[in-house]
Amino acid sequence: MFRKQAFKAALLSLLILALFLGAWSLATYRKDAPATSADAEYAALMGKGRSTGFPTPAKVGEAFVTYLSEPFYDRGPNDKGIGIQVTHSLWRVGLGFALAVAVALPLGFAIGMSPLLFQALDPFIQLLKPISPLAWMPLALYSLKDSDVSGIFVIFICSLWPMLINTAFGVASVRRDWINVARTLEVGPLRKAFQVILPAAAPTILTGMRISMGIAWLVIVAAEMLVGGTGIGYFVWNEWNNLALPNVIFAVVMIGLVGMVLDQLFGRLQKLVTYREQ
Amino acid sequence: MSMHFLSVEGLRKAYPASGAAANPPVFEDIHFGIGKGEFVCIIGHSGCGKTTILNVLAGLEEPSGGAVIMDGREVKGPSLDRGVVFQGHALMPWMSVLGNVAFAVKSKWPDWSRAAVEAHCTKYLGMVGLGHALHKKPAELSGGMKQRVGIARAFAIQPKMLLLDEPFGALDALTRGTIQDELLKIVQATGQTVFMITHDVDEAILLADKVILMSNGPLAKIAEIVDITMPRSRTRTDMHHDPQFYRIRNHLVDFLVHRSKN
Ligand SMILES: Nc1ncnc2c1ncn2[C@@H]1O[C@H](COP(=O)(O)OP(=O)(O)OP(=O)(O)O)[C@@H](O)[C@H]1O
Ligand SMILES: [Mg+2]
Description:
- Chain A is an all-alpha fold.
- Helices cover 79% and strands 0% of the residues of chain A.
- In chain B, 34% of the residues lie in helices and 21% in strands.
- Chain B is built from seven helices and ten strands.
- Chain B has a six-stranded mixed beta sheet, sandwiched between helices.
- The longest helix of chain B has 18 residues, at 173-190.
- The A-B interface holds A 175, 177-178, 180-181, 183-187, 191, 195-196, 199-200, 202, 273, 275-278 and B 58-60, 77-80, 82-84, 86, 88, 90, 92-94, 103-104, 107-108, 137, 139, 157.
- The structure holds adenosine-5'-triphosphate and magnesium ion.
């Protein structure tokens, strides 16, 4: 019965996709209306093909085929394959995120264990958390003097808060009973941290990481639009400057796909460390 | 001054006031002793401070006054010498049954080999009838099974003394009976010293050498200490044939119903 429903849902998804593509074709067909291929070529020659109206699904499909058939080509700074651009973005996100983990986990642990530290740091966290990560960009560019490093810094700062807060909260709300078990067994502080508190707080910590990763992927696109050079965000901006809307749409879909894969990845990890109580 | 294995002298506990009014002490002037190999139960109405006393004995909480002396030394903090079975089993849900017991065994004997730890844990889990569930997670066990893992964990570190906080409180009567029998068997075999909280008069009579009766809180005190004079070989199925059984039982129930008010 469950399988039957999954099958039906998949069918429905396909139907919705087909309807969407159909509506899209219909809408763009009327505006463009290049009846013959000769007309289209003529329009393109006149420099109108790109700017007259929204691209058709077929045009966007073409962009998909060209870019995905050769994802890693490199023809100079403004013409690189989508694979290369995504790799650049993932590299920045990965590095900034890893740095944030390295700071947020130990600091979150300390805050979660010590109510004094929590109270002392709380005002700073409350103030820094709502700042848009992009607002740091000028300061980062000025003091770090490197657009690549600044991008990584922005990712670092935006992934820091959800992880820090969730780690502190997870550690602070470990069940008293488990701590007491460790105490009666005279368990040392390191063993207690790694074998009791960490696994107990792991689901909450991973929720924080998943949120952080989602935000980081949102922010990297905007950051790369600002600093330029490489990355999927720069690709979008570049194609927009070329007025190549099919390519922009292609990139938008790619951003969504990569974001989805990242989220699923963290979903898996989350499942792995989640335990069932009672 | 006393020759008891464990002696509690002038224990008092007051929690800091939460509002304007000062909190009266939960209990005060608590004196009792437990001999080596003795099984002592404590009975009293809910909220009179039984768990608090047990936590002080365990070293998990500090008394506001008085002292606990075990084996000639004052109790200053938690120790592997005192095994605790908590009111709500307190198993770590991310570890298997074996893992939970092994965590305790490795704490006591850090340089044992893996095989030695596993063999030791398996033996104690077998004693509580869980030999078949070693690799299950706590969430896959029934309430009674979880409680038995908690008991095996406490026994496996071979503490000088066991502290049990209503270990059977959440169980149905049938399961409770079988686990009581198992506990009785193990205690008789090992000569373990035990301090146990219970709400169940019959359970206390079955298991204990001595029953401590507490009056109601706040300012709870020890009202009486009743010796269970029935022979130690009593069993759940025939103890009520003993001529003393109803006399003792009525005495305890009477206390709880009529005389527990300060
Ligand atoms: N952390 C605390 N802060 C303030 N008061 C507390 C605290 N812990 C317990 N108390 C109070 O101490 C009293 C005794 O609590 P305790 O848990 O020892 O009772 P108990 O006899 O074990 O009850 P039960 O049979 O219901 O388990 C209660 O009135 C409770 O309100
Ligand atoms: Mg209690």
